[in-house]
Amino acid sequence: MKLLQLLQLPLTLLPLLTIPSTFAGTHTSNWAVLVSTSRFWFNYRHLANVLSLYRTVKRLGIPDSQIILMLPDDMACNPRNAFPGTVYNNADRALDLYGDNIEVDYRGYEVTVENFIRLLTDRLGEDVPRGKRLGSDAGSNVLVYMTGHGGNEFLKFQDAEEIGGWDLADAFEQMWEKRRYNEMLFMIDTCQANTLFQHFYSPNIIATGSSEIDQSSYSHHADNDVGVAVIDRWTYYILDFLENEVTSPTSQLTMGDLFDSYDETKIHSHPGVRWDLFPGNEARGRERLVMDFFGNVQGVEIGNETEWKEDLRRLKEIIDRARLKDGAGDAPNNTADNLVPATDRWVEEKTRRERPVEGPAQVKAGDAWDQKLLGIAALVGSASLWGGFAWYESNR
Amino acid sequence: MLPFLFTLSLCCLFNALIQADGHYRERLDLTPLTPPSLLASFQFWGNSSLKSYEQQHFRYIPRSLGQSLQHSRTEELHLRFSSGRWDDEGWGAKPHQGRKEGGTGVEIWAWVKAESEADSSLYLLHGMLPREVVCTENLTPFLKLLPCKGNAGIASLLDGHKLFDASWQSMAIDVKSVCSKDEDLCSIEMEQTVDMVLDIERSKRPRHDPIPRPAHKESLLCDETKPYGTDDACFPSEERRGQSWTLAEIFGQPMQGSCLAEDQSGRVHESLYLHVPPERETIKPEHAVESKSESTSVRTYTPNATEPFDMVLSHLGPQTFNSHELPALFASRSITGHGQERGGIQTLLTNPSLTTTIEFVYFENLPWFMKPYLHTLRSRLSASSTSDPELIKDTIYRPALDRVRGTQLELAISVPANSTMILTYDFDKAILRYTEYPPDANRGFDVGPAVIKILPTTSGSRDQQPQQQPSYIRTTSLLLPLPTPDFSMPYNVIILTSTVMALAFGSIFNLLVRRFVGADEVEGWDFSYARVRIGGWVLTLRDKYLGIGFGIGIEKEKKEQ
């Protein structure tokens, strides 16, 4: 009995551990994953999109070591580029995005679906250098920006393969399970972009896209000397906001302000925002600062939770969320600060086990005799049936 | 007292360590080539004693590079980033005898110590990425390795916008250990080199508007010796094109002082070497020191450590250039043949010397998807039509293993004076697996260049200064079209096959599970029942459309029954 009580101790402690709330909005570092997925010169604008974001997050303070930049083709030193070593995102050519100081982490053929998912989930070999790894942890806010050619629930990589909506959703779930982000802002600029985040199911994600299902995302304008379009509309107006409004790292503008700046008459498509995964949904999500994702903090984590306790808590959350997702509607409503007392949970666990639930079943070592009897009965029954019919047939 | 002494001795030791910890030097050579071009050759040397390097005391050997070399047990490293094409005929021999040059793209070779402690031998690893783009993101880390990070000294002239607009450029990093006779005096040396050939007219264009536009009439340089050169007609003159320039015009900005130019003895080293004949006029800022001698065609400059330095090569005075040295060998390699299966390689090797036979080693590392046939290797002189196997002195060959390693082919060749040798062989093109094709497979596959090591002339004419060190030449890289499938075809096949299978399965399954009998053979088939049912439907429909109530319809049906 004493042993049993001892075993229950961690469960009794659990509610105590979960008091530090995840709503506090404290994060200790910022990471950005900026991905263009298009090859070839006529997709210049996709690289310009991504380089514009790169420049913005660098301007607002994220260092190069915390930015993963994926460029599938070379535009700056492309022989077709009349401006060598330069990429522009505007026909006024006021700003050289490539500049003198740029670190591209994945380029050319390295930009593949496999590498992207490996990067997110950190399934990389030991010999992969630190610059090619996403070193985020449970305290990191991660900005993921993707652009390219896509469609209903897919985004093309290099005109050769695709990433699906479910692939992304599962990759983010793995990131959450491996404690690789605290909060995430997912941005995507492609045709039918909003379909790519509809399957997300991991917590603490704000997702936004440029266009609804069956809608195209359009380019903004072309530069006659570059010869191709230089930026997409949605990215252009996001940058417009970031450049004009978010002028310093002390900016107090919120995500709500950013998303309110969407003007569908200018963007020519219906951008979408998904709040439901974020704790506190839209109301709390709108209060988040733009700088929480685009800027950088260098916080130091001073907590009284030791690592295994944190692990235990996170593991529990993941299991509960999985139950909720599988449609066990009566599972306790387990947001972190709303826990059922441990003893009640114990009882509930016991009652749940008696009901038929889909999933792994427990294998019991039962009494041997009744099973043997049942087997013999079944055999005898089959034999007699067969014999009976045979006799009946022969008599006809 | 004792701790004090100890600290003092520690300090002395530390000082000694720093004293012994090498030096740093940099140098820029500017050589005007055939008028419109300029060869700029940047060199940065740093060294450190092997002892402090092993103790991870990094000063001029950057920590980022040093630590990765130590981790991978690399004894010697050579890394090259190149793009563009060197014009042999116009510009002559390559700088540094081709020793600082790599193939197009990225080339690396390194001497690496064996993994186990028992095996102390070194292994040479060599690799090429002919497709790799060289751009600003390669220059950024390159500059970060320098002690002044590209902010001061000659490195401040290195700008990606100019470097990657060059007709030819090559960036090199060499790290090696050098030991003197005395074993204790080993040091580790690092040398960074950037060579580029800039088109002067092109470099002078403003960065915000590099697209050439028609010049105004006033700024046109006309050749007035032409008889038709009147007021409204101008024949453009080539004479003064690209003959005068300033550093700021060519490189985008003046040089920002100097970087660690002063050595331990306090002597300030010159950092800029200009190779023009002595009669050419130059203008330098007052705070810089120029030294030139009448006999040589080199003049040197020592810029002030803090002042920006700009220099003008004037268009006044005689427009003369140093004569360039002819390369020892001209090499060009190309792919022959046609079709999806077979191809061939043809290399032309020309010895321009009128007197000496040239000896060299021709080295090729072919990717595994090129499968050469060694028995088809033919060598002949262009003058004769029959093959002459005597030209190839030695052959070293290592066949390829699919997807593991490429073919290695080394030939020791000797070409007589003033003749061209033609080297040919055939190869098969492999068919790749579906997933091995890159996204732009129809562009073709890049094959790295052949490396030619020209051996020092030992025999031959004694009057010429024998070259002590071998020089290197690389051919251009090749683009090989491989048989490329229609990538949508598998989907067509899958769809078509599935359809056929579904049809076949459906009909066979139908035949297997059903038994076909005549209608009259069926026992208990009541036709009257079917008739009643059909009649019922007809009545219902009629009632519906004629507006008769449902209940009446049922009554009628009952009556009829």
Automatic annotation (TrEMBL), chain A:
Task: Read off the InterPro entries from this record.
Answer: GPI_transamidase, Peptidase_C13
Q: Report any Pfam family annotated for this entry.
A: Peptidase_C13
Hey, which pathway is this one from? Answer: Glycolipid biosynthesis; glycosylphosphatidylinositol-anchor biosynthesis
Please provide the Gene Ontology terms (biological process) for this protein.
attachment of GPI anchor to protein; GPI anchor biosynthetic process; proteolysis
Task: Name the UniProt key words of this record, in alphabetical order.
Answer: GPI-anchor biosynthesis, Signal
The record places the active site at H149, C191 (nucleophile)
As given in the record, the signal peptide range reads 1-24
The answer to keyword Hydrolase applying to this record is no
Q: Can you name a GO cellular component term?
A: GPI-anchor transamidase complex
An example Gene Ontology molecular-function term: GPI-anchor transamidase activity
Q: Which domain of life is it from?
A: Eukaryota
Q: Which family does it belong to?
A: Belongs to the peptidase C13 family.
Its name, as the record gives it, is Glycosylphosphatidylinositol anchor biosynthesis
Automatic annotation (TrEMBL), chain B:
Q: Which residues form a coiled coil?
A: none
**GO annotation, biological process:** attachment of GPI anchor to protein
Which keywords appear in this protein's UniProt record, sorted alphabetically? Membrane, Signal, Transmembrane, Transmembrane helix
Which parts of the chain span the membrane according to its record? 491-513
Domain of life where this protein originates: Eukaryota
Q: Which organism is this entry from? A: Ramalina farinacea
Q: Which InterPro entries match?
A: PIG-T
Query: Any idea what this protein is called?
Result: Subunit of the glycosylphosphatidylinositol transamidase complex-like protein
Q: Which GO terms describe its cellular component?
A: GPI-anchor transamidase complex
Q: Looking at the keywords, is Transmembrane present?
A: yes
Signal peptide range equals 1-20
